[in-house]
Amino acid sequence: MPKTTPNLDLERVEELARRLRIDSVRSAAAASSGHPTSSLSAADLIAVLAARHLRYDPNKPDHPGADHLVFSKGHASPLFYAYLKAIGAVDDEQLLSFRKLGSKLEGHPTPVLPWVDVATGSLGQGLPVGVGIALGARLQGAPSRVFVLCGDSEMAEGSVWEAVEAASFEGLERLVMLVDVNRLGQRGPTRYGWDLDVYARRLEAFGWRTIQIDGHDIADIDQAMSQATESSGQPTAILARTVKGKGVPSVADADDAHGKPVPDESVALEALGDAPDTPFSPLPPPDFTVPAESTSKLDLPSYKVGEKMATRKAYGEALAALGAGRSAVVALDGEVGNSTYSEIFEKALPDRFFQMYIAEQQLVAAAVGLQVRGLRPYPSTFAAFLSRAYDFVRMAAVSRADLKLCGSHAGVSIGEDGPSQMGLEDLASLRAIHNSVVLYPCCANQTAQLVTLMDDHRGISYIRTTRGATPVLYEPGDTFEIGGSRVLRSSADDAVSVFAAGITVPEALEAGESLKSEGIGLKVVDLYSVKPVDATTVRDCVSQTGGLAITVEDHWAEGGLGDAVLDALSDSGIPHRVAKLAVRDLPGSGTPAELLAQAGINGAAIADAARRIVKEPLVSTTKG
Q1: pTM of the predicted model, to two decimals?
Q2: Average pLDDT in the 28-35 region?
Q3: Who contacts 47 (Cβ-Cβ below 8 Å, separation ≥6)?
Q4: Deepest of 32, 91, 174, 617, by most Cβ within 10 A of its Cβ?
């Protein structure tokens, strides 16, 4: 990579800003799509940051002492890719492959590029993730600073304000938010236009230091960034008044220019003028090394077969044991740690525990940020409340993030709290996440083992835990696997295969016992891995019971365990009829036993379904 003076003088920075604009226009024109106007407004901010303040080595993107730059306004990707070209990370041919099939320069940045920490583009996520990155750097004692470029439109997102509050509460003085206040959103003016005072008052009320600047005055920007990186005990927001489409008269401050290439590339480039096209070297990162993870033999909790223990408590105890044995494990809570039992981790390892309070978007976003720093985060809350953060989980998958989620208090079996607290969608929603793993243990010893499997897995994994105590069915140390299952009851004369998970496993075993005297054998399978499901065992068992099967789950009928079984059978060629028992009517309050019975997913309901299905002739190979 060509070398120049790392700390460019302000005149050279002006040339760099012009080059960033030129390349933003060129890449969007080559793609015939994109967001050049959003890039043009922030070009001066990024030029000053990259040339004079950001400590970063593009040849060592994972340098633990380097600063982080997150484009929360990910649609300004032409600017981001122009910046990558300016520091020698990509060449001109790559730049002009923007948005084309097979190009790593996608419409919005993703970590398919090594210089991208997290995927952006779903607005309002960059700052919350930046909070997590800053927390991780502080935990590691790293000198890294975190710069987040936000658009003024996304300041309407509630997740931004969850992050603003969290950053202030945590005193993240190395977090700097650059707000590109260009007045225009996708469909017209933003809520507050160029009124920087409005943003300043709100941010200052949350405990932030604010600096208002002309976002096109290079010296003003430079001074603001110098001030922002001085120790203050507060996060800093630089509020920059900018012009959307700056430098190109045909689109400058123009409505209806968002998300489109400029009308005439040659005219736009002529207006922008010329600028050197020579890469420069950013400031070098400070020397820093993250100590290697310390590990020791895990002392997992163990429980006696036959005793009753809630899987949520076993999760908390196993998580604390995992943290004691593996120093990269961290835990996060959404102010329900005394219910999810993540409080056990907090008491044992308080320095590696992060309380995000009732802000589930920030809970998941902080976890995504922490894993950027090489940590392994376990955010936990009620399964129902994870739905608030679903977009963050979805984007975590786009980020190829390593995330271990726990949702407790799932299903009608939570009892009297009623439907607002009952997670009944979580299996479906988490199964729909790209490359996710979904686990649902039925007993405490199994939970402890599954938590260790999550830690060894890389990607997004989810464990669903139960509020009430359930019987311990497995011995301590029994082994399990992602994509596995366990046949708990079986004989050569079984008439129906029953597939259950979690709270319905003991119900299925009870049904099997109750039908013995009637000569109806039930093959009971614990499908603790809901995704990936053990398709081989599903098919083998259904073949052995003449195509007759029952699925039973404490979840809505759509998208959960029942559909996982049907998916496994759909292209098997095995004639089958599946009775799918699930929650179908909106529940109310009641005891767990009453609600399981009302939903038709208890032992008695399973037995009734078995009696019905064995009386009906099998006539179809379609989903039943």
Answers
A1: 0.96
A2: 96
A3: 13, 14, 16, 17, 20, 218
A4: 174
The pLDDT assigned to 621 comes to: 43
**What is the average pLDDT score of the chain?**
96
Q: What is the pLDDT of residues 360-387, one digit of tens each?
A: 999 999 999 999 999 999 999 999 999 9
pLDDT tens digits for range 509-523:
999 999 999 999 999
> Which residue type is seen at 238?
I
On whether the 10-272 domain is CATH 3.30.1440.10, my answer is no
Has residue 610 got a pLDDT over 50? yes
Torsion sign (Cα): 464, 121, 70, 119: positive
Reading the block at residue 88, the tokens are 């020698």
Q: What is the dihedral of CA 111, 117, 121, 124, to 10 degrees?
A: 160
Provide the pLDDT for residue 624: 40
- Structure tokens, 393: 């989980």
Please spell the DSSP secondary structure of 170-208, one letter per residue. HT-TTEEEEEEE-SB-SSSB-SSTT-HHHHHHHHHHTT-
Q: What's the rounded Cα separation, in Å, for the pair 216 and 185?
A: 19
Q: Is domain 486-615 classified as CATH 3.30.43.10? A: no
Q: Do the domains spanning 308-471 and 486-615 agree at the CATH topology level?
A: yes
Q: How many CB atoms lie within 10 A of CB 622?
A: 12
Q: Which two tokens stand for residue 364?
A: 């998941």
pLDDT for residue 1 is more than 80: no
DSSP class per residue in 145-170: -EEEEEESGGGGSHHHHHHHHHHHHH
Superfamily classification of domain 308-471? Thiamin diphosphate (ThDP)-binding fold, Pyr/PP domains (3.40.50.970)
Which alpha helices (DSSP H) does 206-310 contain, by range?
218-228, 265-272
Domain ranges of the chain: 10-272, 308-471, 486-615
pLDDT at 616: 84
Distances in Å between the alpha carbon of 489 and those of 412, 508, 514?
A: 25, 10, 13
* CB atoms near residue 449 (< 10 Å): 20
Rounded-to-integer distance, Cα 76 and Cα 96, Å? 15
Residue 4 has pLDDT above 50, yes or no: no
Pairing of strands 353-355, 329-333: parallel
Q: What is the DSSP string of 77-104?
A: HHHHHHHHHHTTSS-HHHHTTTTSTT-S
For residue 286, give every residue at least 6 positions away whose Cβ sits within 8 Å of its Cβ, in sequence order, or none.
55, 65, 143
Angle CA 420–421–424, to nearest 5: 90
Point out the residues that are catalytic: 360
Question: Which tens digits make up the pLDDT trace of 46-71?
Answer: 999 999 999 999 999 999 999 999 99
